[in-house]
Specification:
The protein is an alpha/beta fold. Helix content is 33%, strand content 15%. Strand 5 and strand 6 form a beta hairpin.
């Protein structure tokens, strides 16, 4: 080959190598954004949810609360409309307009601040008038979604978890839910609620319900104890104060978290009934003050305070309850139970102070109030949180001391039923009314045979 003949070939080869090098070193084309939950791009206008969970703590968390998983809001199947969101946020879930700092409601989407400036949740909203059903997968069903049932068994197939409030027994002193008058048997709220639960269960089962107990004895559900419960970081404390904080984290916080896990992961009921007895301040439990009044009210989840909304986990639970459409079913259940209680006990309603920052009245019903309690926030289904009677009332204390009995007995100069049976009967009647009024009735015997076992 002559020397000049290979020069053009060399030029072509060098050009090809250069083109290959240029393409390999160039940046790849931008990927399409992920379809929906939380990763935020640097420019706000491009924010859209990403399809992967985020378990990194975002902003401050409530004591003992795990980092929330915002990815559960990735694919809402049937989200509510903006008018529903605005109504529930303003009338039930909050008591001021400060919630708008964290929840921004537009015509077509709800934007939720997770606490991380680079990450937020966007939930699509449907046009006005088209929302209403749950937009998230849920383990519970409202009464209207059950198959038909015979009138005498309106709770057939309904899963109900009974949660006797507090612990009682040897733990009652630590819980500060006990007092003793002279030589009378001490009053321990956890023991009283367990007795009511044992009387309530068969009444619900007779109506067809499948009943389970969140607590069935006077022992904690949690495996934590005051000396093992994690304590929040902070400055050095007096040993006595630190020990008291550990006790409260044990019975107020770790215990409720353990009950919530049992409810949400194992029992998965259609309804939780939280049984409590109310009380006025009694001072020294060894020499308690008795008052001359008693009352009743029923609590629904809501009334998140401005301070509570700072916590990412509490905003997460609020959003979860909102999208599951828990409040409408909870409100209808509570209305029926409160009416049955008022009829059977004649207890007057407990009234919170005007313009309370911790409670919101529901539907103008004097017996119904929304409050953000740990239990009715963490239990992800309708929750009836009952607060009847006053343990240290001159009207109710004699009935508590009389114990449980059938029929009527003269107590404090009057013929009265057992306070525990009165309590259980009122709850059962209210729940019966709700499912009787909202559950389909079978049109024929053949249709009745298709009921759930």
């Amino acid at each position: 080959m002559r020397p000049a003949s290979w020069i053009p070939l060399l030029v072509v080869a060098l050009l090809g190598i250069g083109a290959w090098w240029w393409s390999a070193s160039s940046p790849p084309a931008a990927a399409e954004p992920a379809p929906r939950v939380v990763e935020v791009a640097p420019r706000p206008e491009t924010i859209r949810p990403a399809a992967r969970p985020s378990m990194v703590p975002l902003g401050p968390l409530s004591p003992l609360s795990p980092a929330p998983d915002w990815s559960i809001f990735s694919h809402p199947a049937n989200p509510p409309g903006p008018e529903q969101v605005l109504a529930e946020m303003a009338e039930v879930y909050t008591g001021s307009n400060s919630w708008k700092r964290w929840f921004q409601v537009g015509e077509s989407e709800l934007v939720v601040d997770t606490g991380d400036p680079t990450r937020r949740v966007i939930v699509p909203l449907v046009p006005a008038g088209e929302g209403g059903e749950s937009s998230l997968t849920r383990y519970w069903r409202p009464a209207s979604e059950f198959p038909p049932a015979q009138p005498d068994r309106p709770l057939r197939g309904v899963r109900i978890a009974i949660d006797p409030g507090h612990i009682g027994g040897d733990w009652a002193v630590m819980e500060e839910r006990w007092f003793q008058v002279g030589g009378d048997p001490p009053v321990k709220e956890g023991d009283l609620t367990l007795l009511v639960a044992q009387l309530l269960a068969p009444r619900l089962e007779e109506l067809g319900a499948r009943v389970s107990f969140v607590r069935s004895d006077s022992q904690p559900v949690t495996e934590e104890r005051p000396d093992s419960v994690p304590r929040p970081d902070g400055s050095e404390q007096d040993p006595g104060d630190a020990a008291r904080l550990a006790e409260r984290l044990f019975y107020r916080t770790a215990e409720i978290h353990a009950r919530a896990r049992r409810i949400n992961e194992q029992l998965q009921p259609d309804l939780v009934i939280c049984l409590h007895f109310n009380a006025d301040g009694w001072g020294n439990p060894a020499k308690p003050t008795l008052v001359d009044r008693h009352h009743f009210h029923l609590l629904l989840n809501g009334a998140y305070t401005d301070d509570e909304l700072r916590y990412a986990d509490q905003r997460h639970h609020l959003l979860n309850r909102l999208l599951q459409r828990i409040h409408p079913e909870e409100r209808e259940l509570a209305t029926e139970v409160a009416a049955a209680f008022a009829e059977r006990t004649a207890l007057p309603p407990y009234l919170y102070e005007a313009n309370s920052s911790r409670a919101v009245n529901v539907d103008g019903n004097a017996y119904l109030w929304a409050r953000n309690l740990l239990a009715n926030r963490l239990y992800l289904c309708p929750v009836l949180f009952l607060e009847p009677y006053v343990m240290n009332s001159t009207l109710d204390y004699p009935r508590i001391q009389a114990g449980d009995y059938e029929g009527f007995r003269e107590v404090d100069g009057r013929m009265q039923p057992s306070i525990f049976r009165e309590y259980a009967g009122a709850v059962a009647e209210g729940v019966r009314r709700h499912f009787s009024n909202h559950r389909p009735v079978p049109l024929s015997e053949a249709e009745a045979e298709t009921e759930e076992p």
